[in-house]
Specification:
Blueprint lengths: L6 H10 L7 H21 L9 E5 L5 E3 H14 L5 E6 L6 E2 L9 E9 L10 E9 L9 H4 L8 E7 L3 E6 L5 E6 L4 E6 L10 E3 L10 H11 L10 E2 L5 H11 L2 E4 L10 E2 H14 L3 E3 L16 E2 L1 E4 L1 H11 L5
Parallel strand pairs: 3-5, 11-12, 11-13
Antiparallel strand pairs: 1-2, 3-4, 5-6, 6-7, 7-8, 8-9, 9-10, 13-17, 14-16, 15-17
Length: 334
């Protein structure tokens, strides 16, 4: 039986395809993988280590911060700042840019991350995950600047996520398709398990917080109602699947086909999800897998960010399902 590649081996093979590569990018991806292993270990033993529950603080977005949020955030920063690959970082848990300490070299890349997406569910043992994105810096050298972080998704060099659930799964793309690896705890390595990942053109799963539907626009309510109607010829009704962890809902729909939506509503006029930490990196993955990601009116990857914690509506998943949502926003029905 052929032995499957580890993530480390896969990264090295990809590097060999670029003769001029310095190894900085490969080193950065390896650092992200190391941080993921450390976070996975803590998530698995959270109930035994008194690290479940709230920390008693809120983050810049006003969300309650869990103890595991703080651990994941600190772990990513401590691992990534030492590698010499980055000039600046940003975290969904922190208000401003995260400078690289002067004692470490300044590199050519920047990283933004949501350290523990879905952490409100962690006490109930629901899956959570880390989302990350990597850009090349815009500034010429020295410490990184805010402008290095405020880049549209169409400039992404790589993006990915790690899910901590029944298994730990690392999914990423460098713009050449989407690849998935599963952590083998017996050897401490991520093993290639999903390659390539391609999502279905049309799905059969609807993921939305329908408790918010009374605040949705008429067009959004009409779209959701349409997907729930009975019509075998068009593969309806869709199954409703929503756990409240964006990265988990997205991963399921990526594999099985479907649409996730968190639109703007009367309470969140600009949407609720963060462009740089959630929407853009997952949109990059979705498009690389053959799907789409939209606000309902614009491509997520084309949005020029104005601030680190900018929010946007998000409709993401199978291409035909997202395109249909956009048609509903224009007042067009099938």
């Amino acid at each position: 039986m052929t032995r499957r590649l580890t993530l480390t081996e896969y990264i090295i093979e990809q590097q060999r395809m670029h003769p001029g590569a310095t190894g900085d990018f490969s080193g950065l991806l390896s650092d992200v993988a190391l941080a993921a292993k450390l976070i996975a270990r803590e998530v698995r033993s959270a109930g035994l280590g008194e690290i479940l529950g709230a920390s008693g603080t809120t983050n810049v977005s006003g969300d309650e911060v869990k103890k595991l949020d703080l651990f994941a955030d600190a772990t990513l920063i401590n691992v990534l700042e030492r590698g010499g690959h980055l000039c600046v970082m940003a975290s969904e848990e922190r208000e401003g840019p995260i400078a690289i300490p002067a004692e470490y070299p300044s590199g050519k890349y920047v990283v933004l991350f949501d350290p523990l997406d879905g952490s409100s569910n962690i006490d109930a043992n629901v899956g959570v995950g880390t989302i990350f994105s990597i850009y090349e810096r815009r500034s010429a050298g020295g410490p990184g600047l805010l402008d290095d972080l405020l880049q549209p998704g169409n400039r992404l060099r790589a993006a990915g996520y790690i899910i901590y659930g029944s298994s730990t799964v690392f999914v990423y793309s460098t713009g050449l398709g989407v690849h998935g690896f599963t952590l083998d705890p017996t050897v401490g390595e991520f093993i290639l398990s999903h390659d390539p990942i391609r999502t279905r053109a049309k799905g059969a799963i609807l993921s939305a917080n329908e408790g918010n539907q009374f605040r949705w626009s008429d067009a959004t309510r009409a779209y959701v109602s349409y997907l729930k109607e009975q019509d075998a010829a068009t593969g309806r009704p869709y199954s409703s699947r929503y756990v409240g962890s964006l990265v988990v809902d997205f991963h399921r729909n990526l594999l099985y086909g479907g649409v996730f939506l968190y639109p703007e509503d009367e309470k969140n006029a600009d949407g609720k999800l963060r462009l740089l930490y959630e929407a853009a990196p997952l949109a990059f993955i979705a498009e690389q897998a053959g799907g789409l990601a939209s606000t309902g009116r614009a491509r997520i990857l084309d949005i020029e960010p104005r601030e680190l914690h900018q929010r946007v509506p998000l409709v993401i998943g199978s291409a035909e399902d997202v395109a249909l949502y956009e048609r509903f926003q224009l007042g067009l029905r099938p």
